[in-house]
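Re: duplicated header lines in exported structure tokens

Our pipeline writes sequence and tokens for each protein into one text file. With two proteins the header for the second block appears twice in some exports. Here is an export where it did not happen, for reference. First protein block:
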Amino acid sequence: MLQNRMLHSSGSVPDHQDAYLPNHRANDRSHRAIWTAGWCRIHGWSARHDADGWLLWHIQPVYVLIRLAATGYSEATQMATDASRCFLTPTQAMLLTGFTIAHYLLDKGYLSSESILDGRFTAHLASSRNTNYLINRDANKGSLFVKQVQAWDQEKIETLRTEATCYWLAENEAEYAQLRKFLPPYLAFDSQNHILITEAVQGAISLNDFYLQQRSFPLQLATRQAELLGSFHKTIARSVQDAPSFRLFRKQEPVVFLWSSSGFPAYSGHQSQAERQMVQLITKNEDYMTRLSAVREKWEATSLIHGDIKPANFLINQDAPSTGHYDLRLIDWETADIGDPCWDVAAIFQSYLFYWIYHEPLQGQSAQNSYASYGFSLETMQPSMRQFWQTYIRLMDWTAEEAEANLSKIVGYCALKLIHTCYETIQQASTMPLHSARLLQLSLNMLRSPDEAIWSVLGIPNAVRL
């Protein structure tokens, strides 16, 4: 089949962010005082911010909970009154821990002392690049998702501020109002402590988990993905790109563009054997390098883009198959930028191709013994890819010529993304796995035969391209 031939040789939040991002709820001094008073009463110390800084705040809640549970609310209220006369607000930025997060949320008004005392409050750590907490609190208020940088690293601080800016655009700019329904509800951004707070999306799982559980690609879901991207893929005039609302965005090309243009140097100080094999397969193929260079030249920074579209960054309600209602949300906007919307679209297609290649059983591989043997056939996914494309181009209101040119560009971007995916799959590998090599082969064949890739791999015939 033709599709088989394709696998074989042939920023930071503005300084004036208070004008854009809503301020936190006014400090509740009684809440602050209750916690501080607990420490004062037990230890007989004055409430002061001494040289140890946040050390006291890390251990303080443990003692306070004991004291409040023993004294009850009436005495706690009196303790609050006593302590309010001596409480000083710390000025240092703080890193959240399991000890301090309850104090922080209580202080900001997102948590009640009652929920702590009666055991409804729980904090579940779920960190990745940042420190993330899932907070359960009062039943009538719903759960929270709290994200903070793990260290005072300027790069991470700027990317978290970039994410907060995207939430602000959805909340405050009419042009992006439709995006709001595809995001977790925004609550606050604390620019001093670099903390983003949103409501948690209840009953949701990642789209990756959804695909692996359901082993299907519903057309309704493809439609929602197109609607989601269309809600923020709005052409931004260059004069507007310099406005305060957008000045945090760096307008940089994707990392893989820079990586490929410089000959694929090591991301870190050294390359593994598998990485060296991957780089040699690409750089020693002059045709491959020439075609990659041609793809990079097509980049046009015209729109807000997410920059890290992948199934793991989509949340979907777990009961979607039974209800027929697909509540899709997009998270992790840290790499958002002013860029080429075709890059996000290419990521949608690349995700399907990853499932096809990486979950296809290899020769002699047992379906019962291998995770990579779910066997997602391309024919199963192609109707969803067509549905996504048809919905997306209708929302973008492109001319026939624009749609044709952009689809060709998207194929090239998809090939670049497959290279990046190949790199991600060989981490910790001593030699390149066969699935990873097939990702590279598909990338090269898509660059060599883009028209064939459009209809034999993506499943988009001429009749539905426009």
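Second protein block, exported in the same file:
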Amino acid sequence: MAVLPGFSSSSSSEAAALSVAELDRRLRTAVEGVSLGVWVQGEVRGLKVATSGHVYFTLKDEQQDAMIEAVAYRDDALRARRVLSEGARVLVRGKATVWAPRGRLQLVVEAARPAGRGALLEALERLKEKLRAEGLFEPARKRPVPPDARCIGVVTSASGAVIHDIIRVAFRRGAPSILLAPAQVQGDDAPRSIMAALLKLQRVPGLDVIIVGRGGGSMEDLMPFNDERVVRCVAACPIPTVSAVGHEVDVTLTDLVADARAATPSQAAEMVVADRQQNERSLAHLRARLHRAMVAHVREDRGVLRELQRRLGDPRRAIDERQQRLDDLVQRAQGAMQAMQAARRVALDRLERRLVARHPRVVLTRTRAQLDSLRWRAAGAMRAALRARRADLSEKGTQLEALSPLAVLARGYAIAVGPDGRALLDASQVEAGDTIEVRLRHGQLSAGVLRSSGEES
């Protein structure tokens, strides 16, 4: 049988009893001796940061049902804090020890490094991506939350501080009606309890908004608000919902699917209940501004009225001046009308004279006189032209007579025409024995050619 260091198997020691502190010291020495500098892998659960700077969490085995409490003291926590997060899979180096005040076995972490995401965090990420793909986180599907709700439904624990914070803030700011639907907010039955409370509130008529909330806690404490059934129930709620789960650093799937998210339950109450005192102060401020604006406006209008009165003067004097102006315009209009009538009358007389001058009888008489004159002028012109033509013809006849062959014949000459009918100009045109015609002034002769000679005689 193996014996731990510091313990004896001798029967003689059975008579000596150990104190609890001595037993804790021996266990501490034994445990630290076998675990000094060991590396341990696990998933971080229940991460808490104390005001002292120490970090407390549980390191859970992902394959078997086993876990160990762990602590990283302030100096080591400053280096390990960037690695330690809820649901993260980490490798930590340290030593196991026994904390005597609680008699608790714990792992004192000296260093830590990431080893991937834990099974719980991976499952949560898969669900988150699934819901995002369905569009449940889209801003377009979210409804506006009423800023001054009259009737508020609250889903939370009846014994927790959340409902008291909401009531305190809501009644300080206004006087709404608050309807509590009690629900378990932690544990295995919490999802069904939260869904049942939501369904009850949905059946209440006149409800303006629903606040789903709980206080802060570890990731495991907030897991009911990451449950798919609860998330889908919040998404399907016909009444605007505000999620106020955990603290500002805690973000659950319910926060992402709700119509609005509040960092704390108190902030959720501030979101849906208007501050009555602030509204009264704002109203008083606006009323004072309106009064000052109205006074300034009236003062300005009075100044404008005085200026207009100064410029306008006595209304009766203004009317008289306008009447005088009207009389002057009437006189000018009458003068213009008379001048226009006179001009029209002169134009009319001129047109009448022109019309009389163009009367058909006058035009006919004048035209006839012109026609007679033109007739005499035409007859004279024709006689003068005829005489000129006759004289020219006589002259041309004389010239033609002088050029006529008959005139040559009258002087004793004759024209000889050959057998071909052409006038003979050369003796070579005929031969002896040809018959020619000889034309005289009076008549013609047929002659025979006895001989021909080409020489001039």
